[in-house]
Amino acid sequence: MNEFDQLQGKGLLIHHWDADGICSAKLVIDKLGKKITTNKTPTLGNYFLTDEELKECKGFDFVIVVDMSLPEQNILHLAKESKVLIFDHHLGKVIKEVFHHNPVIKGEDPDEYPSASWIVNDYLENDVNLYGLLGIIGDHEQKIKENPHFSKIIDSFCKKNNITFDDLHKMAYLLDSNYKKGDKKAVEQAPYYLIDHPEHKAILENTTWNNNLTELDEEINTILDESINKTDSIILKTMNTKSNIISTITRKLAWTNNQDAVVVNKGYFDSEDQLYVRTIDNDMQPMIKKGKEYGFKCGGKKEVLGAILPKEKTESFVNEIVTYLSKQ
User: Fold this and answer.
1) For the domain bounded by 227-327, which CATH number is listed?
2) What are the start-end ranges of the H helices in the chain?
3) Which of 96, 193, 236, 263 lies 20 to 30 Å (CA to CA) from residue 33?
4) CATH code of domain 3-207
5) pTM above 0.85?
């Protein structure tokens, strides 16, 4: 018996807004059905729950958090009146007051747990399936082919289901298009769309998501064509957009150039900046820890740092990150 089998009453599901979060949510709802009465994602771009959002989380017997490393104070606040379960693969510390299933922060190899969707699927003892894999591909894209274990699993799944890796890659991008366009409601509806339309063609042929993708590709390509700065082996990029595409831009810059990339978006929030860092083989854990010590909304994985910074603090923290990466 796992923790899911013991849940009673009315449940809230909080999930990340990307393909991994959506697929993780879909798997949880598959298991618990109508016990999940509400699902929500935080304000797009926020890696925390606001005071208003915390109020909306009251009145549930249990709360499940997937693919989000919410601040400890958020989790403890939820745990005051609800049983809390977390399924995640991001860095952080174990929150002992709740059920916290994150093999990565307990010392397991991140390459063995590349997504929250895989962790949820594994915990539920499901067979390999589309949604367990889509979260992996959403988070790692073509890079997952460098992981021999999961490359073999994905190849086998594709052959068995007569689809290609490129199909899976596009599906992840289509799911991601909702948050990149800033459509929080569409993100929250997406897990139920996947449940109601279980065939992969329903993702590939979704007209709205394809239109989103066309518009986003145009903006992303325009931004990538703009100038960048370089410091030694580090790519530096500042942009100004209302689309939530900073992770995509950073990923493309880092992987295309095979260099660490540091990107700031000044246009998403009015009084804060988005910061995203992706490295090739450097460890961002020390800078994630430092960002949290400074009081910033900051998190990530070994190779990724994401943060929301007061505009007056952005330059100094970016300089600190560049200095850190230069010394590695």
Assistant:
1) 3.10.310.30
2) 19-32, 51-56, 72-79, 116-123, 130-140, 148-161, 165-180, 184-196, 200-204, 207-225, 246-257, 285-293, 311-327
3) 96
4) 3.90.1640.30
5) yes
